[in-house]
Amino acid sequence: MTNNQQKTRWQKLWAWLKKPLIVGIPIGVFVLVLGLATVQGSLVLSSTNEFCFSCHLKMDTIVQEYKASSHYGDGSNIAATCADCHVPHPYFEMLQVKIAATADIYHMMVGTITKENFEEHRPALAETVWRDMQANDSANCRHCHQGDNFDLSKQPQRARLNHQQIAARGETCVDCHQGLTHKRIVIE
């Protein structure tokens, strides 16, 4: 086989490969964009109070406690959503929490956690949330409570002094504010 014949074979092979690429690349890009949009849409949808309430309203008293709290909002202040407190704001941390949360759906579907036994499981579930908040120095609290939303000069003296000393004591928001939005659970 001559060099020319070999070159012609490669040219034919490349011409054959180019056709699917010309069509395949736009289709691949479309599928990728559609997949990313679906993931993003799912993240947004699953971060709404309505999504959270769809299970919790049927399961427990958490929604009622939240609605009675200052975080729910009374029309004069900005409400913090369930996701504002329970879902990290950085994208990949959010994905990790959303994937881990599918375990909750599993336990509800198989009946491990039911309306009848939720309060039995609640202390362990709350402990997990508090431990996570302590480990990340209450990052979700600090996401909103900063700048004008956390002006120490506008706080009563005792609160201002406690907030100024929180780091020196090795504490974070939930060390003092457990029970602010949901009732305080005593772990036995």
TrEMBL record:
Its cofactor is heme. Heme 1 binds at residues 52, 55, 104. Keywords: Cell membrane, Electron transport, Heme, Iron, Membrane, Metal-binding, Transmembrane, Transmembrane helix, Transport. The keyword Disulfide bond does not apply. It is found in: Cell membrane. Binds 4 heme groups per subunit. The keyword Phosphoprotein does not apply. Residues 23-184 form the NapC/NirT cytochrome c N-terminal domain. Binds 4 heme groups per subunit. It is a single-pass membrane protein. This is Cytochrome c-type protein. InterPro entries: Cytochrome_c-type_ET (IPR051174), Multihaem_cyt_sf (IPR036280), NapC/NirT/NrfH (IPR024717), NapC/NirT_cyt_c_N (IPR005126), NapC/NirT_cytc_sf (IPR038266). The lineage of its organism: Bacteria, Pseudomonadati, Pseudomonadota, Gammaproteobacteria, Alteromonadales. GO terms for biological process: anaerobic respiration; denitrification pathway. It comes from Agarivorans albus MKT 106. Heme 2 binds at residues 85-86, 182. Its main location: membrane. Heme 3 binds at residues 141, 144-145.
